[in-house]
């Protein structure tokens, strides 16, 4: 869509891409002209300055040779919260695990994960807004701003 807007000379129209637009996997699939200057809002960015995110990012880069994206963080957090619940569960049956999840709050890569009042997993996370800069095949997030978001 952004390509068509630009081909029609509609460069002045503000374009906001969804969460996937801020992820390296998407950047690898598109030409610079498609995303350069486009704003994105996402609930995870590797540029998050929190220590847990930066440590995970360095370890991930060392092991896999590429930067983390939201999906790597979500999977890591998902497995980690299950492991935390297994550690504190008094029994490994349905009721024991249910009780363990109720009591576990986990500070993960994507934010603090907890069970809400309706017994749904939720998390306090930092929403990221950014502008994509694309030049010579390299896409970076610029003008990055984080806002802590949660629902109580």
UniProtKB/TrEMBL annotation:
<dbReference type="InterPro" id="IPR028082">
    <property type="entry name" value="Peripla_BP_I"/>
</dbReference>
<dbReference type="InterPro" id="IPR028081">
    <property type="entry name" value="Leu-bd"/>
</dbReference>
<dbReference type="InterPro" id="IPR051010">
    <property type="entry name" value="BCAA_transport"/>
</dbReference>
<dbReference type="Pfam" id="PF13458">
    <property type="entry name" value="Peripla_BP_6"/>
</dbReference>
<keyword id="KW-0732">Signal</keyword>
<protein>
    <recommendedName>
        <fullName>Leucine-binding protein domain-containing protein</fullName>
    </recommendedName>
</protein>
<feature type="domain" description="Leucine-binding protein">
    <location>
        <begin position="3"/>
        <end position="125"/>
    </location>
</feature>
